[in-house]
Amino acid sequence: LDIGLNASFIQAAPSGIISMISQSGSFGCASFYAMERENLGCSKFANIGNNVDISFVEVLEFFREDPNSRIICIYMETIEDGREFLKSLKSIVPIKPIIVLKGGRTSSGMKAASSHTGSIATNYIMLKTSIKQAGATLCENASDFITALKTFSFLPVPKGEKIGVLTNSGGSSVLFSDKAEEFNLKIVEFSDTLKERVSPHLISLVKIENPLDMIGVAGEEQYYEITKAMLEDLEIDIVVPCLVVPPFLEMKSDEHYRGIIRAWNDTGRLKPIIPLIFFGEDFEDLKKFAKKEKAPIFYTPHEAAYAIKILVERLKLKV
Q1: Which of 26, 148, 218, 268 is the Cys-Cys partner for 214 at CB 3.0 to 4.6 Å?
Q2: pLDDT tens string 202-260
């Protein structure tokens, strides 16, 4: 897709840095729709079916050497040469993130896979353990698969695990905190230095703690100043600005997000930010601005927490 060549009958995603191997052409097609929605692009796509003439390993080794394939993703139902596949994963993961979604994990799914590719689906429990040992990101569902693509496309790997959260809606940060604990993520106490820095930008009703609930009156400038302060704080590695777009106060749907991204840009995009715009999929101005700025949006607490989970996992690979 780098050179505008689409040798299939499906609609291609915009050109980009993701390369995909799939055993299902229709899954690839659906993924392209999701990539376009999330402002992601595809470099190469290989639909290998039941591996009758080309294997996962052969394509993986090509993607390994291809400079435009900076992220590799795989949809698989069966694998013939498991040892060579895992050996290839282990050699590539330190260089490029690899995201895997396995179809045919249950008895019903295995039966469906048999009729699809004509092969016996690989045992999921064995494969799951092996893929994780290789350091690849194994997704449990298609939504997490797209979230992983978005995360690795837009965000740097953090230097540590400490999370700072700011919000204009207590509910969104509470639900995010629940998910964070499920994934064993670390929402830390604010340092005294950070508390002193953010205090002038908050009204007196606000209790300065993590998560920081700035309440509904917080606008673009508050989001800019608080996000920037957290990004520059030595005790915060990952910043999660949560937002419910207010249906009042004559605020525009993208103004808070503009403050978030301005702070990220002004600090050199050195740390990952996870903008959680709770159920914000229908705000077109917001999405247009995200596309222009090449920045992500996460729409649910699960999506935001999952993004941090896989970034931290990659951090622990020491890559």
Answers
A1: 218
A2: 999 999 999 999 998 899 999 999 999 999 999 999 999 999 988 766 778 899 999 99
* pLDDT tens-digit readout, 132-160: 999 999 999 999 999 999 999 999 999 99
Residues comprising the chain, all counted = 319
How far is residue 110's CA from residue 104's CA, in Å, rounded to a whole number?
4
Candidates 309, 300, 301; CA nearest to 281 is 300
Asked whether residue 205 falls in the same domain as residue 275, the answer is yes
Strand partners, 75: 22, 101
User: Residue 276 belongs to what domain range?
Assistant: 162-315
Question: Which of the four pLDDT bands, split at 50, 70 and 90, describes residue 117?
Answer: low
Asked if the bond preceding 241 is cis, omega within 30° of 0, the reply is: no
DSSP summary character for residue 201 = G
Please enumerate in sequence order all residues whose Cβ is within 8 A of that of 131, keeping only pairs 6 or more positions apart, or say none.
Answer: 86, 89, 100, 138
pLDDT at 7: 62
For 152-209, how does the pLDDT look when each residue is reduced to its tens digit (9 = 90+)? 999 999 999 999 999 998 899 999 999 999 999 999 999 999 999 999 999 999 999 9
d(CA 157, CA 271): 8
Q: Measure the CA–CA gap between 154 and 17, rounded to whole angstroms.
A: 11
Do residues 171 and 307 both lie within one domain?
yes
Within a domain: 55: yes
DSSP letters of 126-178?
HHHHHHHHHT-EEESSHHHHHHHHHHHHH-PPPSS-EEEEEES-HHHHHHHHH
Pairwise CA distance, residues 255 & 126, whole Å: 48
**What residues contact 306, with CB distance under 8 A and at least 6 apart?**
144, 147, 148, 179, 183
Contact (CB, 8 A) for 176 and 304: yes
Q: How far apart are CA 32 and CA 249, in angstroms?
A: 37
Final residue belonging to a domain, choices 154, 178, 200: 154
Closest CA to 280 of 316, 250, 252: 252
